[in-house]
Design brief:
Chain lengths: 228, 296, 214
């Protein structure tokens, strides 16, 4: 094991503080009082700073009061649905291209529901080992809600108005074509992952393909397309 | 399909309302006029950093910046069964296209727009088919389409573009750029952006812009071509991986000495530093081709 | 039917509050404010050092947030998005104060050789000398350049991870890590300088005393 000098240690210092401690670095720290003192200083700075968040306080109430007034003045606060949409709803309650204004469901929730379903199916087919760990880790990473699919769809029923939207032929064709493209990629990625289970890059691609599919299905649902 | 065609605003008579001098200075002023069969022109006075949202199913949307503290919307719906609503709430203008009856054929749901905004405006545009082009606007923008192409020129800010099949061209833009698509192609040219994140599945990505110091450039697809162009004076740290495709590199790289070195390598991978490695470039493809080529 | 329903805002989950706020619901705005104002206010306070400016900046950050809320697409965490807005508001203010329009990268000190201080690598242990206490460290933090200060406050004070900071500050994760390290090294230097200055003061006072006695 080569011993390193203090000067060389400087470039090990940043990774050290992030938790990367190579053998050489550890040996040097054990042996060198100066460098270990630097480390103690940096750690002490970090520890002291962390304790500050315990004493954080809310902003004074006058900030909210002033903010609220400004929001009203700018017309950002609307207690009623805008008149134009009210008229439209009265005239054509069941149709209309409203996907952007009042989606049936906030898109992240709907996409999350599709995603959870897709992931559940995929993981059911994959090996039992590490399945739960991978699923939890990945779902956490993508910040998708994990509440059961049925609960989310029920929420959708209760809160949506029943808008049925129709896309024009170009849009409809594009959505279906692209769904086929994504399905194709999912098949290729699944094959790749089953051949090389350790390949993290292939796995990432697979998870992203699921996410794309979920998003696409959501967009299709919003536009009243036949999904599946 | 309706045959109304898009007429550029400068060929049409200006608003009579304006020349009569009846403008009252107030944030909530909206002036509207119809000149021509279904063409509608509206003006809204706004303060700094207005937000303009557009929800349209199909059409050509062109947004340009001007020096007035005003938003002008010229809309041309394709049939009389649809109507364009533009409403102002404080410093926001919301534009949307809606059906007037049940029986509008989906292909008739189309409106074209010519919109002028102050250059610090923030835009949110949803347009499924047709095209969206924005020029010289410097506020943040979020553009979502299905099949419509998106063209941004001389824009800046947080630029976020999402399409399903529409292509995306971004020229001379700055700030932070995020683009995702399934089959759309991306052309990112002459950018001065410090953060680019572009992901498409079957589309191609061409990046020919500046690599700013500390900038991050992440380009990813499943298949197709990802290409960047560089000059001898550029400085970047490169990571290029294609699981099943080729990586063609013309840059003389020195091998990296930092963490990435320890990651397992899959497929065809290339890691290295060009000059001082100040920008970070990441190119990933599943089975596409990655090209790192010299600028001619 | 078509009207926005009023919900007891004390229990409104954030995702719902965002959706309602996008439709202009006042109670939803208030809920989002209550959920996030502490973090934002504390960030502003650490960055500018006084409550009056911090209050103004907090108000400005939330105002911008509520103006833009329709553009929130739900693809990143809401709090990350809000903090990005808040950091931008603060940095704009600091840039205006210092009078130049430099980019974020230029608001930090020029690149030194990575990982090392310019001098004084050794030196007395700051903990043992009692220099790392709240007041001294706060003073030192106030002296950091804005870029270092932001990353330090977000990471060491507020506990954000580097990937979150990268999103908030629009930089790379590597950048966030290196800025944090430089910030801590700079703080260490500042604390040492303060120690030395204090020691000089003490010596002067001591020699004045002995000089005076005769």
């Amino acid at each position: 094991m080569a011993t390193i000098t203090c000067r060389e240690f400087r470039s090990y210092l940043a990774p050290w503080m992030e938790g990367e401690r190579s053998e050489d670095a550890q040996a040097h720290v054990r042996a060198c009082p100066n460098c270990s003192s630097v480390i103690r200083d940096l750690e002490a700075i970090h520890t002291e700073a962390r304790s500050w968040s315990a004493s954080e306080q809310d902003a004074p109430e006058r900030v909210w009061t002033a903010l609220r007034t400004q929001l009203e003045q700018e017309g950002l606060i609307r207690d009623t649905i805008p008149a134009s949409v009210d008229r439209a709803q009265a005239a054509a309650p069941r149709t209309g291209w409203f996907a952007g204004l009042f989606p049936r469901l906030p898109r992240p929730v709907l996409a999350g529901a599709y995603l959870a379903a897709l992931v559940a199916v995929a993981f059911a087919l994959s090996g039992p080992v590490n399945r739960r760990v991978n699923e939890a880790r990945w779902l956490k990473g993508t910040q998708i809600s994990t509440s059961p699919l049925s609960a989310q769809l029920n929420f959708a029923e209760q809160n949506s108005s029943s808008y049925v939207t129709r896309s024009n032929s170009v849009v409809s064709a594009s959505l279906h074509q692209n769904l086929a493209i994504v399905d194709n990629y999912i098949a290729l990625c699944e094959k790749s992952v089953s051949e090389e289970p350790q390949n993290e890059v292939a796995r990432d691609y697979l998870y992203e393909a699921y996410q794309q599919k979920a998003d696409l299905l959501t967009q299709m649902t919003e536009r009243g397309e036949n999904v599946q | 399909m309706s045959t109304s065609h898009f007429v550029p605003a400068q060929w049409l008579p200006k608003s009579k309302w304006k020349t009569a001098g009846l403008l009252v200075p107030s944030l909530l002023l909206c002036s509207a006029v119809s000149a021509g069969p279904r063409r509608q022109e509206q003006h809204f006075k706004v303060a700094a950093h207005p937000v303009i949202t557009i929800h349209n199913p199909n059409g050509l949307i062109t947004v340009k910046a001007w020096t007035k503290s005003e938003v002008m919307i010229i809309s041309t719906p394709a049939s009389d069964r649809i109507e364009v609503d533009a409403e102002q709430m404080g410093n926001r203008v919301d534009v949307s296209t809606r059906e007037l009856s049940d029986s509008v054929a989906p292909d008739d749901m189309r409106a074209d727009f010519q919109i002028n905004v102050p250059e610090d405006a923030e835009l949110q545009i949803h347009n499924d088919a047709g095209n969206v082009s924005v020029a010289n606007v410097l506020g943040d923008m979020n553009v979502e389409t299905v099949a419509a192409g998106v063209d941004l020129e001389d824009a800046a800010g947080y630029l976020s573009v999402k399409t399903v099949g529409g292509s995306f061209t971004c020229v001379r833009c700055a700030g932070r750029i995020e683009a995702s698509s399934i089959s759309g192609n991306f052309r990112l040219l002459n950018l001065r952006s410090y953060h680019v994140w572009a992901q498409t599945s079957s589309g191609n990505i061409l990046f020919n812009g500046e690599f700013l110091p500390n900038g991050t450039y992440s380009l990813k697809n499943y298949s197709g071509v990802i290409e960047v162009r560089f000059s001898p004076g550029d400085s970047f740290d490169l990571s290029a991986t294609s699981l099943k495709g080729k990586v063609n590199n013309e840059a003389k790289l020195t091998p990296s000495t930092h963490q990435r070195h320890f990651m397992p390598r899959w497929g065809n991978a290339l890691f290295g530093t060009f000059n001082e490695g100040r920008a970070k470039i990441e190119m990933t493809s599943f089975d596409g081709t990655i090209n790192i080529l010299k600028r001619d | 039917m078509a009207r926005t329903r009023r919900i007891d805002t004390g229990e409104l989950p954030e995702a719902e509050a965002i959706r309602l706020a996008q439709q202009g619901d006042a109670a939803a705005f208030e809920r989002l404010y209550r959920l996030h104002n502490r973090r934002v206010y504390s960030l502003c306070l650490r960055m500018v050092g006084n409550t009056a400016e911090a209050e103004d900046l907090t108000q400005e950050a939330f105002l911008q947030l509520f103006r833009k809320i329709a553009t929130f697409r739900g693809e990143s965490a809401f709090s990350t998005w809000l903090h990005r807005l808040a950091v931008n508001v603060v940095l704009m203010k600091l840039r205006k104060k210092s009078g130049n329009e430099s980019s974020l990268e230029e608001l930090t000190e020029p690149d030194e050789e990575s990982g090392g201080p310019r001098r004084d690598f050794g030196g007395p242990d700051l903990r043992l000398s009692g220099s790392i206490d709240r007041v001294n460290l706060q003073r030192a933090v106030e002296q950091l350049p804005p870029g270092y200060k932001s990353v330090f406050v977000l990471h060491d004070v507020q506990g954000y991870e580097h990937n979150e900071i990268a999103e908030i500050m629009a930089c790379s994760i590597g950048n966030s890590k290196s800025q944090l390290h430089k910030a801590r090294m700079r703080l260490r230097e500042l604390l040492h300088e303060a120690l030395r200055a204090q020691a000089r003061e003490d010596r002067k006072a001591a020699s004045a005393e002995t000089g005076g006695k005769d």
